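question for whoever is on the cluster today: can someone run the full assembly for these? two chains, 424 residues total. i dont have access anymore since they changed the login thing
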Amino acid sequence: MARQERAIRTRRAILEAASVLFNEVGYEATTIGALLERIDLTRGGLYFHFTTKEQLARAVLDEAVTLEGVRPQAFKLQEWVDIALLLAHRVPREPLLRASIRLSVDPLSRALFGTRWPDWVAVGESLLVEAQEKGELLPHVDPAETARLLVGAWTGVQLVTEVLPGRTLSEEISSLFALILPNVASSGVLARLDTSPYRAERLLKEARSQAD
Amino acid sequence: MARQERAIRTRRAILEAASVLFNEVGYEATTIGALLERIDLTRGGLYFHFTTKEQLARAVLDEAVTLEGVRPQAFKLQEWVDIALLLAHRVPREPLLRASIRLSVDPLSRALFGTRWPDWVAVGESLLVEAQEKGELLPHVDPAETARLLVGAWTGVQLVTEVLPGRTLSEEISSLFALILPNVASSGVLARLDTSPYRAERLLKEARSQAD
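^ ran it for u. tokens below:
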């Protein structure tokens, strides 16, 4: 394995171990010492990549706005849906993404690092503006407002689904779209959108098999 | 002032001071010592009401499921809307309600005390079942699912609105209903629902002037 590739893998392993800690004990209680107990690295090896907890948190947040698995679709609205479905599939499976939510929700770390919610709103708004230009939206829809509400609703549904038993996040986000899309998509488009809770897994497999 | 009434007011003042602390520094960093610095009470005076931080957090959560200002309406759906609008008006103004959200969102305190989300889902579901029996809902609506999604969406919109500038929580929750109600309310009912961001202030004034 080339030196650079090894460094990338090590960096990723560090970020994932730090994410598990952030998720388990929170930002405040996470320490570099506890991180070193969980990874197969010396302090010097770690410091080659990160020297402070702050750097780790910022790096986790930098990886949070991910479009992995999203591909061009006939409808821009479908891409907007896909982003939310993909995250719903990945967040329960990827500690790093969960950590980025936790860092955003925790007022202490939020005060230090901000959140990625404005970035997500911008991604959604830009897709909805394109959808509007292509005539996919009902006339009254405000792309900025709808993008903002979806980021909020997605975030809260994720939190509440962690607590309430019986439904996966993918199922809940799929239901969320069934609730709001009839008031967003023009009728010709609505019938052709796929909001299945199983869609994300398929998209991700396709993307990852192409990457291999 | 009667002795009992004074005790009730003191208890309330303690809970509000504790809520301000929970909001500012979080549950973990809150101490009885810091609380005593903020209230005009001796340690003995405090211990008459609460002896531990855990008791304070539980009492804050016990006050979180509040229906103040909600009154019987011609449509049960309007009462469901009113609960959400009233909370949207009150949460930015009442530290105790904000603290209950913070305690629910923080994984450490959540692990100790649980959340009130299941209670809110039960309140909403029961209203939506009544609305369904009265023919106020579109045929496909599932009261349990819709109640759950609204609690999630409300919670996340509150979190994200704290971060994004320019819109009040009342405005955002009003927009959230404008987004989802057309797919929930039967058409005759939809046109007669009031989702104005100013509705809650009026309801609350009426309720409080009657209470005086």
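summary bc i know u wont read the tokens: Chain B has a mean pLDDT of 95. The domain at 76-211 of chain B is CATH 1.10.357.10 (Tetracycline Repressor; domain 2).
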